[in-house]
Structures are given as C-alpha cells and as structure tokens.
Design brief:
Number of helices: 5
Structural class: mainly alpha
Radius of gyration: 17 Å
Number of strands: 0
Largest sheet: none
Order of helices and strands: HHHHH
Number of domains: 1
Strand content: under 5%
C-alpha cells in the first residue's frame, strides 16, 4: 500500500465516521427539539444560527429519518411505547426558527 492510498483510506473512513458521529448527535438533538425539550433548545441556541441549522438539517436528514424510525416507530411496533410523535420536517424547522429568533 502506498502512502497516497493510505491517506485516501484515512480521508474516506474519517469522513464516513465523522458523518455517522455528528449525524447521530444532530439526529438525537433534532428529535428532542421536535419533542419540545428545553435542553435541545439550549443546545440549538449555543451552537447554531438558523442558516447553519438548515444546512445541517439538509445534510443529516437521512439520519433524522433513521433515528425517528429506530426510536419512535420500532418501540411502537414492539408495543414498548404507545406515544409516537409524527415526524414533520416543517414542525422541526418551525421550532428551530422560533428558538433561534428569541
């Protein structure tokens, strides 16, 4: 393996792992924001402007859908939790806009 090939692997794996890790954090916080948790609102205010939030929402939208399925729909299917919140991207954007405009 050449040095160039090694650094290519490092960059690709690094990008994939960064997407997964930051996507996990963003998806969990996005779902908490959708549930109206004040901790998520504080997290949002500390780290984002509305423009940056919208960019990350676009990038991590698949992660949001995956975690909504894993944390809301699967427990409902297994009869662990009956309260399933409807995933609405417009509600999430509206809550973020309200939180960031204050």
């Amino acid at each position: 393996m050449s040095d160039l090939e090694f650094w290519g692997y490092v960059l690709v794996y690094g990008a994939i792992l960064t997407y997964i890790c930051w996507g996990f954090v963003f998806a969990i916080q996005g779902l908490l924001l959708l549930h109206g948790r004040p901790e998520a609102v504080e997290w949002l205010k500390k780290r984002y402007s509305f423009k940056v939030f919208m960019r990350e929402l676009t990038v991590f939208f698949p992660m949001l859908l995956l975690f909504h399925f894993l944390l809301e729909i699967v427990p409902a299917m297994l009869r662990i939790d009956d309260a399933v919140i409807r995933f609405s991207i417009s509600d999430l954007i509206e809550r973020a806009e309200i939180a960031l405009k204050k």
